[in-house]
Each structure stands twice: as C-alpha cells, then as structure tokens.
Design goal:
This protein is an all-beta fold. It contains no helices and eight strands.
Length: about 100
C-alpha cells in the first residue's frame, strides 16, 4: 500500500541553460496520489504576472535575448488538503537559430 505524499523529485525536461523560441520545457514531479495535468503551474518570477497552467512551458519570441526566471509549482491533494512543491528555472533565451545536433 502506498502512503500519500506531496510532490517530490521535481525536474525539468529538458533541463538546459539556453532555449529558443518554440522550445518547450516540461515540469515533472512524483507524488501519491499522482499529479494531474492541472496540478502544475508556471509563473514568471521576473514580473509575477505571466502564469501558465499545465506542466509545459513554451518559450515565446518575446523572451528572446535575455535571461528569464520561472517557477514551476506542482500540487496534488489528499483528503482535500493541497500539498505543493516548487522548482525554480533560470535560463537564457537565444534569438539565434538552433544548431542541428
């Protein structure tokens, strides 16, 4: 029997230092009960106004040529009590085309 636990083992996929417009970053966490898609939220820490629901953050063209800071918040619920964890992401968004691997 699994005991309920708050989100933990948070990670970003991919976890890079540089992203390009159109790239996506997925926030992931373990927890029991399992986290649903609507249990994730991204917030722009630079202005605290840009909030994106869901585990995926898409890099936008207005982020180009600067370093941005975001926070992913992951929450699940047990007996109607929310339990949350956060992960901070600081990265640069390049306006230069992505080089082929």
């Amino acid at each position: 029997m699994l005991l309920p636990d708050a989100p933990e083992n948070m990670k970003l996929d991919p976890d890079d230092d540089v992203y390009h417009p159109g790239d996506t970053i997925t926030c992931e966490a373990d927890g029991h009960p399992a986290l649903e898609t609507d249990g994730y939220q991204w917030m722009n820490l630079d202005d605290a106004s840009d909030i994106t629901d869901g585990p995926v953050l898409t890099i936008a063209s207005d982020m180009v040529d600067r370093t941005v800071s975001y926070q992913c918040r992951a929450c699940n619920e047990y007996l109607r009590e929310p339990r949350c964890a956060t992960l901070h992401a600081h990265f640069y968004v390049s306006g230069k085309p992505r080089l082929a691997d």
